[in-house]
Amino acid sequence: MSEAGRRLALCRPADVGAGKAIRIERGGLTLAVFNLDGEFHVTDDACTHGPGSLSEGCIIGDVVECDFHNGAFNIRTGEVVTPPCMVPLKTYRTVVDGDGFVSIEF
Ligand code: FES
Hints:
By secondary structure, the protein is mainly β. Helices cover about 0% and strands about 45% of the residues. The protein has strands spanning about 5-10, 20-25, 30-35, 40-45, 60, 65, 70-75, 80, 90-95, 100-105. The strands form two sheets. The chain has a six-stranded antiparallel sheet with strand order 1-10-9-4-3-2, with no helix packed on it. A four-stranded antiparallel sheet has the order 5-6-7-8, with no helix packed on it. Strand 7 (about 70-75) and strand 8 form a beta hairpin. The chain is globular. It binds FE2/S2 (inorganic) cluster (FES).
């Protein structure tokens, strides 16, 4: 499979409660898997501002607030919602694959 078509299985849908997030280390990446009302989204876990882990942040709707300095990102798009964060968060195309895993494609 080419690099462009790579898929990485992360977890089962039931592993992430609604309105929650978990951290997954896989394939050299440290990721946050979010469950927004049954819709899964994956971002880098590391806050772009500093040492915050976004899977431990506060989720309000489709926004995650970092618990270090209260910067916030849109979970769907990665865009900065609240400073001091300035750099958008990397997001990944996320699917529930045919084997029932929450997976990213990149
Ligand atoms: S480390 Fe996340 S807002 Fe500063």
